[in-house]
Structure formats: C-alpha cells, structure tokens
Amino acid sequence: MLNVLIIEDNPIIAMDVKSIVDEMEGFVGYIVSDMPSALKLADKRPIHIVISDIEIKGSADGIETAKMIQTLYLTPVLFLTSYHDEATLERAAQVDFSGYLLKPFNEDELIAGLRLCALKIKMRQFPMEIGAEYRYDLKMQQLFYRDEPILLTAKEHQLFLLLLHSRGRIVPFAYIDDVVWCNQPVSDTSRRQLFHRLRAKVENLSFQSVKYGGYMLEN
Fold first, then answer.
1. Is 149 left (phi over 0), alpha (psi -120 to 50) or beta?
2. H helices within 47-187, ranges in order?
3. What CA dihedral angle connects 15, 20, 25 and 30, to 10 degrees?
4. Cα separation, 38 vs 30, whole angstroms
5. Smallest Cα–Cα separation from 85: which of 65, 69, 100?
6. How far apart are CA 175 and CA 181, in angstroms?
7. Residue 151 and residue 156: Cα distance in Å, rounded?
8. Cα-Cα-Cα-Cα dihedral of 88, 34, 138, 120, to 10°?
9. pLDDT value at 211 more than 70
C-alpha cells in the first residue's frame, strides 16, 4: 500500500483528491493543511507520494513543505495548484516534482501522475546499505542494524535522514533547525542533546560535530 500525503487547505478539494486516491488500488490518502501537520504525519507512517497545493496555511508554503518532505523521505511530488506564473514555476523547480497539475484538475491526469510516481518508487524499492551492518528501508522508512529495527524518536529520525542524505558533507545547524524544529525556536543545548542521543543509538557509524558549523555523517 502506498501512502499519499495530500497537502491542501481547501477541505472540498482535499476530500475530492482523497476520494480519487482511495479509489485507486494500492493507494490510500491522508490530508494535512500545513507544514507542521505534514511532518507530524510523515513521522507516524511512511509517506510514499506527496500531492501538494502551493498556497497553504502557515508560514511555509506548499513548495517549501514538499521540498522538506522530499529531502527527508525521497518522496515523489505532484503539485496541484492554480499558480503557473514564471516566478512560481522557478520556485517549484527547486523540487524534483513528477507532475504539475493546474486547478481545476483533470482526474485522469492526476491518476496518471500517481501511477508514474508508483513506478518510480517500485524502481528504487531496495534497502540502502549504509555500512557497519546498518541499512535503511526506503519503503518502510525504517533503520535496521543486523536486521533489527532501531527505534528513533521523530526528531532523531529526521536528523538521521538529513545526515544520511548529505553523507560526507556538513549539514548546517540552521538547516537542521528549520527541518527538525520547523521554524520553532531551539537552543544549542537541545540540538546538541539530540545529536548525542542519535549518535548513542547508532554508535557504529561515524558522526562528526563541526564547531559553529553543523553535523556530518562520515563516509
């Protein structure tokens, strides 16, 4: 079953999209209306596809939200929006999106977009071998050590994915704060404690803290 995250603050459109998704065999839709809700839901269950409006509630728009979910979980993205001006398209291009559908949308085009996303997911459904007997299952969105799952909190999981997807490169503190704390104030102590908890749970991997810079998972 593929879980589809529908980021839409218009309840009528959101339910319309969800009904189409739920009628497709092997798909189930979940509705949120802002970035914090999207990140919270993504931590509760694996998210495989994102359908996002661009104008949504909150300080972060649909482009920022979709980009953040994709950064963490490598999800295909479909944009569903009324905007197609040059500036919006340039910003949307920051996301590796699989479709850009204009409202009022065509149901057949949405279904085709979802099927395309499903094919992309099928092509990359394999565990990521990290090393030191760790692997990350992309479909389950679960870290394993010697085939035993490692239980991470929501913030530990998000920090781990940021470091994993940027392996060998420093992830700046400011970017970690934006993703993990979602624009909420965070102290250096809280960030440092999170890093140490993660490193203790994944002790056989080599993490590095760069003073005044950020964190890194070494190759």
1. beta
2. 62-73, 86-92, 107-123, 154-165, 173-180
3. -30
4. 9
5. 100
6. 10
7. 9
8. -40
9. yes
Cis peptide before 76 (omega within 30 of 0): no
β-strand pairing of 127-131 with 134-137: antiparallel
pLDDT in tens, 133-181: 999 998 888 999 999 999 999 999 999 999 999 999 999 999 999 889 8
Please list, in sequence order, all residues whose beta carbon lies within 8 angstroms of the beta carbon of residue 63, skipping any fewer than 6 positions away. Answer: 52, 54, 79, 88, 91, 92, 94, 95
3-state class of 54 per DSSP? coil
In one-letter notation, the amino acid at residue 57 is K
- Both structure tokens of 210: 């760069």
Give the type of residue at 79: F
Give kind and range of the element (H or E) at residue 200: helix 188-201
Percent of the chain with pLDDT over 70: 99
Pseudo-torsion of CA 25, 32, 109, 45, nearest 10°?
Answer: -40
* Contact call for residues 85 and 93 (beta carbons, < 8 A): no
